[in-house]
Amino acid sequence: MKYFSRRLLHAILLLLGVSLFSFALLQLAPGDFFAPLKLNPQISSRTVEGLRAQFGLDQPWPVRYGHWLRGILHGDLGPSFAYNSPVAPLLAVRARNTLLLTGTAMLLAWLIAMPLGIVSAVRRGKWSDRAGGVVTSALLTIPDLVLFLGILLLAVRSGWFPTGGMASTGIGELSGWGKAKDIAYHLFLPALGLAIATLPALVRHIRSAMIEVLQAPFIRAARAHGISEYRVLLRYALPAAANPLISLFGFSVATMLSASLLVEVILSWPGIGPLLLEAILAKDVYVVLGTVMLSSVFLVLGNLVADLLLFAADPRIRMES
Amino acid sequence: MTHRQKLGVALVLLAAFQLLIVFAGFFAPYGFATQDRKRPFAAPTTLHFRDAQGHFHLRPFILDSESSELYPVRFFVNGAPYNIAGIIPAHTHLFGVEQPGRIFLMGSDAYGRDQFSRFLFGGQISLLAGLIAAMLSVSIGILMGGIAGYYGGWVDELLMRGGELFLALPWLYLLFAVRAALPLHISQWEVFLLLVSVMGLIGWARPARLIRGVVLSAKQRSFVMAARGFGASDAYLLRRHVLPQTYGVLLTQMTLLIPQFVLAEVTLTFLGLGVGEPLPSWGTQLASLQQYYVLSSYWWMFLPALLLIPLFLVFYTAADALQELYKTVTL
Q1: Closest-CA distance of chain A to residue B315, Å
Q2: Contacts of A143 in chain B (CB under 8 A)
């Protein structure tokens, strides 16, 4: 328990640091969201000043930071100038879409990577393992940007899949099942792309973790006792190889909001990524802050989840703390 | 192949590629901004060796689509002026065809600019960005990691916690946030410098951690202890005994970081936050792919993206080989 509370305190301090850092950075920028309005001769400078005062932009930034922090305690992430609405609900919808995408991709990647990693560890050095190694290294060298563009190319040229968005225009008229099908149809390509992008690293880690365990004497002992290979792998080797995999899983959770930025922008998935990009270009500071903070929260959470899982899975770690 | 041979091959390939990029003006038939509005989205030019009568020619020629005339490919031709390595003015190009013929090895873009030339010139910016950013973050990494590992105690704690902050941040997001903090409308070279310094400043945490680890174990070595026993100063110990042990990690980190920063520059530019037109960068070349009609109708616009894959493969191979080499050397 003491271990847990110390970790939590550490996490909160980290988040505070991140927020202060990003807030200060955003204030360094000359001009703000309303600066372009000043160039418009039809809008008087008093109107612009009024708008700035309304959103508190006329105050010094430490004051605004204090305001913003106090707001967070009430679940208020500040206003979005461009959308003329609070940031929190705006972010919630986008985060939901992103999580749908990354969640599916993560599930897909792990489901493919687990058997692949285990099989290539068992057949270490055989041709199937070598072929797998070549494929994973090839996938590793393809930059994500190029991969996603390639997928977009596939969608555009073949016409088998929609090239963007999350739903067809007439989705409102569809029944519940039809809606789900439509979204799944739109989800397929971005999720596949993201899964392919994360897959090779996963397979490599699973493979090396399994190889290490399979060399251990207790596995030979288990085999010598005549326990079936299947059981040896899944009941004996896999739990022993779990530690690095749990850390990896934590990392997957940690990057759930930030990993999909590129794929979202390229395949126009209405998630956090495009929102952040627009907000940056428009200097919609609270949206930028909210997004950075939310993804940092996920990072911290992912690490925390991994630590807790390790704590539960490994008695050695429990003893240490 | 042994790791040493692998590294050798990778380094030779990298050097050859860098040469192409540094002397882009010579190897590229056109300037990066040379437009030909009559030939937007021209397909890659085919080199012919056989003419209409079926005769074989040693010198390749091209069939110009505009005038349907034949133009032989000539070598060491005079063309658009450029500067060798940015300083010495010159106007000789490795190859080219006579006006009004045009040779587009990788097709042309929306303004009829040669994609091949733009790729070479774009490499100057993208690779330079990667190189400077990597050097910057590794140097900060040496400083921070060295101090943290060598002195330990609260200094170590402070620096490593600070580094954690940088590691914890989703770094693409952070780059965005920092980029957001910069004015959107400044000159392209200022953008470039800012981009590079920001990328370099953000990336120091990982090399710093690794270097700290090496320094930590290095200062425990008996010969370091012995030197200390003979009264060597901290600065001498660091310079003479501790830092040389980090070279392996440094080199590996550099080869890993350069492609990462190149990619970061390309990505940011692709998203419209980096270096913009008319300066060529690999990111601006890829950015045109965001329009569906470009992607669906003109496949050669995808070539610059594909060319990045072998380049990255070479970088990663070099990093892999370096890592293996230094592992066997230090053990």
Answers
A1: 9
A2: 263, 266, 308-309, 312
B284 to chain A, closest Cα gap in Å = 13
Q: Where are the domains of chain B?
A: 117-330
Looking at residue B331, its pLDDT comes to 40
Q: Do A296 and B309 touch (CB under 8 A)?
A: no
Contact at CB, B173 and A292, closer than 8 angstroms: yes
Q: Which residues numbered 33-72 in B keep a CB inside 8 Å of some CB on A?
A: none
The whole-number pLDDT of residue A258 equals 74
Closest Cα in chain B to A264: B271
Nearest-neighbour CA in chain B from A145: distance (Å): 7
For residue A62, give Cα distances in angstroms to A4, A16, A67, B96: 32, 14, 9, 61
Q: Give me the CATH code for the B117-330 domain, please.
A: 1.10.3720.10
pLDDT value at position B61? 78
Q: Which pLDDT score is estimated for B84?
A: 74
Q: What span, in angstroms and rounded, lies between the C-alpha atoms of B83 and B81?
A: 7
The structure's pTM equals 0.82
The mean predicted confidence, pLDDT, of chain B is 81
**HEC string of chain A?**
CHHHHHHHHHHHHHHHHHHHHHHHHHHHCCCCCCHHHHCCCCCCHHHHHHHHHHCCCCCCHHHHHHHHHHHHHCCCCCEECCCCEEHHHHHHHHHHHHHHHHHHHHHHHHHHHHHHHHHHHHCCCCHHHHHHHHHHHHHHHCCHHHHHHHHHHHHHHHCCCCCCCCCCCCHHHCCHHHHHHHHHHHHHHHHHHHHHHHHHHHHHHHHHHHHHHHCCHHHHHHHHCCCCHHHHHHHHHHHHCHHHHHHHHHHHHHCCCCCCHHHHHHCCCCCHHHHHHHHHHHCCHHHHHHHHHHHHHHHHHHHHHHHHHHHHHCHHHHHHC
Interface size A-B, in CB pairs within 8 Å, comes to 111
CB-based contact A28:B181 (threshold 8 Å): yes
Percent of chain A with pLDDT over 90: 6
Q: Contact B289/A261, CB-based, under 8 Å? A: no
Tell me the per-residue pLDDT of A272-284, one tens digit each, with 9 for 90 and over: 888 888 887 777 8
Please, are residues B172 and A295 in contact by the beta-carbon 8 Å criterion? Answer: no
Candidates B169, B198, B292, partner chain A, best to mutate (most A CBs within 10 A): B169
Alpha-carbon distance B69 to B82, whole Å? 28
Q: What mean pLDDT do residues A2-20 have?
A: 82
Give dist(CA A198, CA A139) in Å, integer.
9
pLDDT on residue B184: 59
C-alpha A239 chain-centroid distance: 26
Cβ <8 Å between A296 and B182:
no
Q: Are the Cβ atoms of B295 and A288 closer than 8 angstroms?
A: no
Higher pLDDT: B165 or A220? It is: A220
